[in-house]
């Protein structure tokens, strides 16, 4: 009905909505296989819109036969449209599956790196703690052994010079202990 303005405006609004969707999809479809399927879908939709626009123009000019021909052409292209939509959806799902696998692989790689670094740091801290504790306790143990010897009656004992040269509390204790002897 070429004189039905309400239906013509509704058709124009739908056509505009389709082109708005195309603008969004143009930037959203990034996978090369999906782009091929999307471009095929877009071409079919644009061909259908062209048939409908031309048919509407023919109908407005009173050429019902030409309008009917363009309408039938648009209806025939609908099957291709449905198959391209299915193909696009399948390609996008395959792409999303690949992206998900890539994300999982990256996650596990990062988890492995973090685990290795954590183990490395823990081992390093343990080694440092062991070295530090030995450095701290071995002079004290030497003084303790010397004190045991004195308690057993060995009064002519020599305190190791390494202890006497220490500048910390253990060194001062060693000097004091040496003076007592």
Textual characterization of the structure:
- This protein is an all-alpha fold and 181 residues long.
- It has five helices and no strands.
Q: What share of residues are in beta strands?
A: under 5%
Approximately how much helix is present in the residues? over 70%
What class do helices, strands and sheet pairing give? mainly alpha
What does the main sheet amount to? none
Number of helices: 5
Instruction: State mean pLDDT (0 to 100 scale).
Output: 90
Shape: rod-shaped
Order of helices and strands: HHHHH
Q: Which stretches are poorly predicted, pLDDT < 50 over at least 5 residues?
A: none
Number of separate strands: 0
N/C terminus separation: 123 Å
Radius of gyration: 44 Å
A few lines on this structure:
This protein has 181 residues and is mostly helical.
How is this fold's topology laid out?
Layout: H1 5-28, H2 32-60, H3 64-151, H4 161-164, H5 169-180
Helix pairs in contact: 2-3
């Amino acid at each position: 009905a070429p004189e039905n303005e309400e239906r013509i405006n509704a058709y124009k609004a739908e056509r505009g909505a389709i082109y708005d969707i195309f603008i969004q999809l143009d930037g959203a479809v990034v996978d090369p296989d999906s782009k091929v399927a999307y471009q095929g879908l877009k071409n079919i939709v644009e061909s259908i819109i062209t048939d409908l626009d031309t048919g509407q123009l023919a109908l407005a000019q009173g050429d019902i036969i030409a309008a009917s021909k363009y309408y039938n052409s648009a209806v025939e292209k609908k099957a291709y449209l449905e198959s391209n939509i299915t193909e696009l959806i399948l390609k996008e799902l395959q792409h999303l599956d690949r992206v998900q696998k890539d994300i999982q692989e990256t996650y596990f790689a990062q988890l492995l790196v973090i685990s290795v670094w954590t183990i490395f740091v823990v081992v390093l801290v343990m080694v440092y703690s062991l070295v530090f504790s030995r450095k701290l306790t071995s002079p004290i143990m030497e003084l303790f052994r010397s004190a045991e010897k004195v308690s057993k009656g060995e009064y002519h004992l020599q305190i190791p010079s390494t202890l006497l040269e220490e500048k910390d509390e253990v060194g001062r204790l060693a000097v004091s202990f040496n003076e007592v002897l």
